[in-house]
Amino acid sequence: MAGIYIHIPFCKKACVYCNFHFSTSLRLKNEMMEAIHKELQLRKAYLGENTVIETIYLGGGTPSLLSADEVNTLFDTINQYYNLASEMEVTLEANPDDLELDKIQAYRNTPINRFSIGIQSFFEEDLRFMGRAHSADQAKACLENALNSGFEQLTIDLIYGTPTLSHTHWEENLRIATGLKIPHLSCYALTVEPKTALEYQIDKGKKADVDEEDTAQQFETLLAITAEEGYEQYEISNFCRPPHYAQHNSNYWKQVPYLGIGPSAHSFDGKSRQWNIAHNPKYIEGIQKGKLESELEVLTPQDLYNEYLLTGLRTKWGVDKRRLSKLGSATQQKQFAKAIAPQLASGHASENASSYFLTPKGRLLADRLISDLFWVD
Ligand code: SF4
After folding, report:
1. Is the whole model's pTM more than 0.85, yes or no?
2. Is residue 27 part of a domain?
3. 12 Cα: distance to centroid of ligand 1 (angstroms)
């Protein structure tokens, strides 16, 4: 079992908070798509020839800049070189301004069966603050169009903690999303990443900074409304109406191997991580010469152990006891037992026969609790 991630590194407009790799110039789009096809061919053995691919995720950047024909051509190449499961989760990240009705209907004739839509907010002032390319009307219209076109597998991204977002509007954002019965929500607190336009604008006093208390209060509202509406918080930032868990992302958290294609994409084969160069012309030039510009890090047992804790304990499934004991040394197992004991006693963590997991109370303090459990030398 494995997944494929394909990074489409173009956006119409740069959102102020974003630190992903993308270009707002589409000049190299055709060359990029040719290079992506070629990388799919070059790396067909990365996951092992008989490995079955169960999830494919087109992320970015903005994959909804691709036409349905471009998506189908991409899948012709994937089909040629990879062993695909008969039923796959195939997700396309989309921005509302790309999802006109005719485009959504055209995507129905592709293997895409799930959209991840960057809504962020249904209010103009927040979208303007974030520098998003879409309007509040487009945010609502694309969801209605997608649902009416038969795309039942939808997830949307929402951002809270934005200085323009009042508590009433945050509640309304959640009410709109849950009212439309969107089966999966990813809700993130706005973070000011280094070297972003947002950091610069806050430093220059042109934009208000994020208020931690407002963010914490909005997180509480998020937990309350999603619970009331029948959503399960199965990862710190991810909520769904069961059984609509995001398979691709859940597999990342469970350390299932994946192949990352395109500039800046990361890959994981169970033993090492590899990341492609985050530079469109250099990526294309390398691939044209038959060489992938990338770096590789072989993971130590300690890396694998700590990564498993970090991602696993953020989910409702927690970490598997057998896997933990396979990854850690005998000394580490003793250290772990000692470190988790107070968390079990205080009700921040819990266990059953097969796993350890954080309780909802523990997930509020996840970063600190998990780092207390790390394998340290
Ligand atoms: S559309 Fe997405 S990838 Fe592109 S700039 Fe905005 S947040 Fe970043």
Report:
1. yes
2. yes
3. 9
